[in-house]
Design goal:
Elements: E1 7-17, E2 25-33, H1 36-51, H2 56-67, H3 69-79, E3 84-90, E4 93-105, E5 113-115
Antiparallel strand pairs: 1-2, 1-4, 3-4, 4-5
Helix pairs in contact: 1-2, 1-3, 2-3
Length: 139
């Protein structure tokens, strides 16, 4: 039997705090996806939905992230296997979105299982499941 091949997935969270002090959680949303574009699309949709009620400066910052370089940079980070996020204040609350890459695999066609503590190779974005030990020679 062949060992299951791990795939890169993305853990997404949105946490809204009742105050700007970020000490009392009002709402939490979590989901996983295997596509960086889906993770960023959902953040963009949620930020855009909040934008109409934001003060002008915060609205400009939010829409600049949604329609500009912020979401492009976030997408690039996810493709490199790096986490990304965005946060904003609205109506006296504070909301944070974060996306973190992780590895998962499907054992025998069952539900995905995360591979915890498995680092990613920065060059290829693939799992580093083992590495040869370095030989150190003393002189």
């Amino acid at each position: 039997m062949r060992a299951p091949h791990p795939t890169l997935a993305f853990w997404c969270e949105r946490i809204t705090y009742r105050t700007l002090d970020a000490d009392d959680v009002a709402d939490v949303s979590r989901y996983a996806t295997t596509a960086p574009a889906e993770a960023i699309r959902r953040i963009r949709a949620e930020v855009r939905a909040l934008a109409y009620a934001l003060p002008p400066i915060e609205r400009h910052r939010a829409l600049s992230w949604v329609d500009g370089g912020g979401c492009v940079g976030a997408m690039g980070a996810l493709h490199r296997g790096e986490p990304c996020g965005f946060s904003l204040s609205h109506q006296g609350r504070w909301t944070e979105w974060s996306v973190r890459p992780y590895l998962e695999f499907l054992p025998d066609g069952r539900a995905p299982i995360p591979v915890c503590g498995c680092p990613l190779d920065r060059g290829t974005g693939t799992a580093v499941l083992w590495a040869p030990k370095r030989t150190v020679r003393s002189t």
